[in-house]
Fold this sequence. Notes:
heterodimer; B: mainly alpha; globular
Amino acid sequence: xxxxxxxxxxxxxxxxxxxxxxxxxxxxxxxxxxxxxxxxxxxxxxxxxxxxxxxxxxxxxxxxxxxxxxxxxxxxxxxxxxxxxxxxxxxxxxxxxxxxxxxxxxxxxxxxxxxxxxxxxxxxxxxxxxxxxxxxxxxxxxxxxxxxxxxxxxxxxxxxxxxxxxxxxxxxxxxxxxxxxxxxxxxxxxxxxxxxxxxxxxxxxxxxxxxxxxxxxxxxxxxxxxxxxxxxxxxxxxxxxxxxxxxxxxxxxxxxxxxxxxxxxxxxxxxxxxx
Amino acid sequence: xxxxxxxxxxxxxxxxxxxxxxxxxxxxxxxxxxxxxxxxxxxxxxxxxxxxxxxxxxxxxxxxxxxxxxxxxxxxxxxxxxxxxxxxxxxxxxxxxxxxxxxxxxxxxxxxxxxxxxxxxxxxxxxxxxxxxxxxxxxxxxxxxxxxxxxxxxxxxxxxxxxxxxxxxxxxxxxxxxxxxxxxxxxxxxxxxxxxxxxxxxxxxxxxxxxxxxxxxxxxxxxxxxxxxxxxxxxxxxxxxxxxxxxxxxxxxxxxxxxxxxxxx
Lengths: 275, 265
């Protein structure tokens, strides 16, 4: 009895300890990366690691001066932003149509697109866009990244549309709404959280996507992700600069998801739990 | 834009087509080459080994995290917030980060091992350890995602079942194995399905860190197909490899969907 009572007392403490350890395991590598970006070259490779050090911005200056970092960042914003807008503009009405008319084939096609490896798309695109000399143009990059964002937008919106009561649109239609007006004025305001999740996920996935820009971008339209890869490929031994660049590149998706966190977890798991 | 490339790749896989020359119809010749290509079988082995290892680790770690988050109140909100960041970070950044941490001579990982008296490891530079190392990196990035799905599943389970089980004297391991896990099975299979799709076509982190090396030790099918297509410009053969890989992914998803139906209560 006594042993069990002690165990009952100790349980929350043990859990707290586990939470702390888990937190360290998942946060420490990121923390290490971020702090390395602020260390000078001696401090960055010092073992044992210096927990207290004089922070310097020199690495960030190196990153901004040795490559057109801001230009690449702008490219990433244009391509990720453009393909998010395109994906959501096409994906949301498509999801509504699929949900409301119980159509299956567009959803299945998008599921196939979600499962196919990126290179499966890339091979024909590469042949096609090379033939018309369009490799490296922004519209090619925006349209190809929409192959990532469109299925994502469709599949995240589906459970939100499915959850709406059908009487809603019937009532609106009797009041004289057109199909477009039903979607814009009645349905969309009700699926606001779903829309937020769609936009966040599309932007994050398009920003992070590596393969398409690796092959289809040129020096003018290169994204940050590909620039970072080249940075590694050049055998850069300046770890401080490398980690500073990594931190800057990871910042937009992490910040966007933190801001939208409230909707994100619900959106990611909607439809994944039941149904 | 989506349907056309899928069909076009299938068509391209039936041609002899080196980029820059004219394509010639080859029927199934590319698939014949594939059957006798040692690098294809090596790629398949690497893909499956990485898949099974990563999936097992992230399901176990994800389940552990979900159960921990479900029963504890301490710092739960904060931990949930922090757990989102690994899987929204660009894989390229995750690769860069671990490349530096796991550096054989100057990395902090080997220093930490030396503190507990373990001799330094080569990690990504060792042909024997590169696959487990990549699996570990991917588990770090995606176990939190699995955990959030399973946590959402745990929160929808009917509490009266657990009350009844507690009255019948079930607790600890027995409760987990006989009550929680069977009820949670659909969520577990959903998480496994989502991860299977990404793991079978593993690309980004390997391309950043090892490019398939050392030798061919981490050359997954996706990496091999990419090299055939965009380095050696053998579009026909690369297409055949991609079609085969896609068939494997779709096959795995169909099996898992069937399993999910069987496990739904």
